[in-house]
Amino acid sequence: MLIDFFFTLKDAKIPVSIKEFLILLEAMQKSVINPSLDEFYFLSRTTLVKDEAHYDKFDKAFGLYFRGIDAIFEKHPEIPLEWLQKRMERELTPEQKAAIEKFGYDKLMDRLKELLKEQKERHEGGSKWIGTGGTSPFGNGGQNPEGIRIGGEGGNRTAVKVWEARSYRDYDDERELGTRNIKVALRRLRKFAREGAEEELALDDTIRATANNAGYLDIKMQPERKNNIKVLMLLDVGGTMDDHIARTEELFSAAKTEFKNMEFFYFHNCVYDYLWKNNRRRHAERFPTWDILRKYPPDTKLIFVGDATMSPYEILQPGGSVEYNNEEAGAEWLQRFTGTFPKFIWLNPEPEGLWQYRQSISVIRQLMNNRMFPVTIEGLERGMRMLSK
After folding, report:
1. Potential cystine with 138: which of 23, 130, 199, 246 (Cβ 3.0-4.6 Å)?
2. 213-225: per-residue pLDDT in tens?
3. How far apart are CA 39 and CA 45, in angstroms?
């Protein structure tokens, strides 16, 4: 059965080798793990995957191959149903939604501190305590126009802060594109120059020199023509951007191919005082935003990629980040970026027809001087023309 698993990983373009596969079989033969699918997952990932950049591909391939196989392993102890069952999402009428109190940011944080001191047990379906499935501003799985999501999953995208362990994945820069149109659109942003050492044949000069040399071959070389456009791409990751992973990966992969002088960093929802390049190490390897602003020359083309879908507090309010208490508002950092790099645009994977219904998108568009474009072929072409002016 593991031979087919090996070929499934190969089909997923994970660079696994026969030697690594034999190591996995040897480990299984020596019973280094218990008969558990979870333990086999970690063992196989450890032995077969050499680069953590391939973890996402491995997870997909593993899930595809072993779907339903966990039934042959020992069952997990039963968990009390009342701790797992979540009330079905309430269908509130517009009048009921309007009746829910809408807190201000500071008031919301003060009220949460009070509840953390008072609450002693789990609550479900209420309007006051931290719980699930209700209309309280605190908890998860319910409905409230502004709240703090604590654990669990969101659904209405109205939380102003999220308290949970958040794990983001890097965008895959080797994703196979289904179309060349994205690359063609990005090529509008090109400025070629001959730089560096002599690398390629200068055909016209060679012909001319050979003719002048009475027919004796006189080869002339010249530096290769390279696109000397410098691009800084800042990508929103996690949260609502999970809905746009496929499209963003296509854009990212095409950009990495077309722009040889491209640097990229990640942020979540809005830029603040630090960015990161690896989502798995984003808490340990942070890059101060001030350093990034000072590092790149002013002629660098700045491209933000994000759905701009968040609470307006995250843009306008100090401490408004869903993850930590940022000292300065995101709007301040956005203005610093646009002031440092005059050639900038924002690419939004959300359908353009929905922009008018998102308050945060309106705020970002104003801060970007309306330089926001959809991630469509037509939108990319407009964006590249804007950067080329």
Report:
1. 130
2. 878 788 877 766 5
3. 10
**Residue environment code for 52-66, b if the CB has 16+ CB neighbours within 10 A, otherwise e:** eebebbbeebbeebb
pLDDT computed for residue 333 by the predictor: 96
User: How far, in whole angstroms, is CA 13 from its chain's centroid?
Assistant: 21
Q: Is the pLDDT of residue 72 over 50?
A: no
* Cβ pair 315, 364 in contact under 8 A: yes
Number of C-beta neighbours around residue 51 at 10 A: 8
Quote the CA–CA distance of 209 and 219 in Å, as a whole number.
8
Burial class of residue 33, CB neighbours in 10 A (0-12, 13-18, 19+): middle
The tokens of 275 are what? 């960015």
Whether the CB-CB separation of 136 and 130 falls below 8 Å is answered with yes
Q: Are 270 and 330 in contact (CB under 8 A)?
A: yes
For residue 75 the two structure tokens come to 């069952």
The Cα 272–Cα 353 span in angstroms is 28
SS3 357: helix
Give the Cβ contact number of residue 270 at 10 Å.
27
